[in-house]
Specification:
mainly alpha, 7 helices, 0% strand
């Protein structure tokens, strides 16, 4: 499984709590999380995972939001684009922490094979 998608699955409670804190309903959260995971995976094909997350966290995210295609995501999920963008910003710190922990664990476990 892709490391980003693994973060979304294993840390779904933390992601859900962040989304609920900014006004997402349970139904919106259930629609948002799998779609966000897939689209962030796609966006990171053109830049690093950390660069993508830091752009979302810093507010310098126009290019990332275009790569994620928030408009298409809104049409598919039925959630307005402003709330989707807010959701991506809200989950960025959780994703950064989860991804950092997993990538460090992956690096350590791979180095033990060398």
């Amino acid at each position: 499984m892709n490391l980003i998608k693994e973060c979304f699955v294993e840390d779904s409670k933390a992601f859900s709590e962040r989304l609920k804190s900014i006004g997402f309903s349970d139904d919106q959260t259930m629609k948002f999380l799998p779609e966000a995971a897939s689209r962030i995976v796609y966006a990171t094909q053109k830049s690093s995972v950390f660069q993508t997350i830091f752009c979302l966290m810093s507010g310098h995210d126009d290019q990332v939001l275009r790569a994620i295609d928030v408009d298409s995501m809104a049409n598919k999920s039925g959630i307005n684009t402003d709330l989707l963008a807010s959701g991506l910003h809200a989950i960025a710190p959780v994703l950064l922490q989860a991804y950092s922990q997993r990538s460090n664990s992956f690096t350590v476990s791979n180095s033990s094979f060398a």
